[in-house]
């Protein structure tokens, strides 16, 4: 059941950072790659992808920390400048580093609204994590046309046009 409606808000643990998202996610990833496991300190990360301009910092200050990724392209993690909680990341997904934000679903005020649409990198999933049979999953990464909704693909086409690149 899709319980998404926009806008939604979120923030860090200490409350210094507050942000608002003015759209439904393009897609929500449950990523099981070793990089997400290390960066989150957990078995996987859940990220809701949004156009960068639709994620607005409402209050507080952030800092950006660049970290390596298994793909070698790296990611920029935006954290609260006080409690250091990661609120979103920008990956160099096909050159879209400045155009798509991967919002950490756990930092949303109502994270239950955004369950994963797809589980990625299940090839490195922790063996004790049991995914529901009905959940979509891929060993590594997916093909956009087979995974994203038609509406999200149209939004991605706009991003690609603005960025002057094609990834889908």
Automatic annotation (TrEMBL):
Keyword Ribonucleoprotein applies: no
Molecular function GO labels: carbon-sulfur lyase activity; metal ion binding
Domain CENP-V/GFA: residue ranges: 8-122
Keywords for this protein: Lyase, Metal-binding, Zinc
Family annotation (SUPFAM superfamilies): Mss4-like (SSF51316)
Family: Belongs to the Gfa family.
The protein, known as: Uncharacterized conserved protein
Organism (species): Aliiruegeria lutimaris
């Amino acid at each position: 059941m899709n319980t998404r409606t926009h806008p939604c808000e979120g923030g860090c643990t200490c409350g210094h950072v507050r942000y608002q998202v003015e759209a439904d996610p393009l897609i929500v990833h449950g990523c099981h790659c070793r990089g997400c496991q290390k960066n989150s300190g957990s078995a996987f990360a859940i990220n809701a992808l949004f156009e960068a301009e639709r994620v607005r910092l409402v209050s507080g200050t952030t800092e950006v920390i660049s970290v390596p990724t298994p793909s070698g392209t790296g990611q920029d993690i935006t954290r609260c400048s006080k409690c250091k909680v990661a609120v979103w990341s920008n990956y160099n997904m096909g050159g879209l580093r400045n155009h798509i934000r991967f919002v950490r679903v756990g930092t949303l005020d109502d994270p239950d609204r955004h369950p994963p649409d797809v589980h990625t990198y299940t090839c490195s999933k922790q063996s004790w994590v049991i995914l529901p049979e009905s959940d979509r999953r891929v060993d590594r990464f997916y093909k956009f046309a087979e995974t994203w909704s038609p509406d999200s693909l149209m939004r991605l086409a706009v991003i690609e046009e603005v960025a002057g690149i094609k990834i889908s």
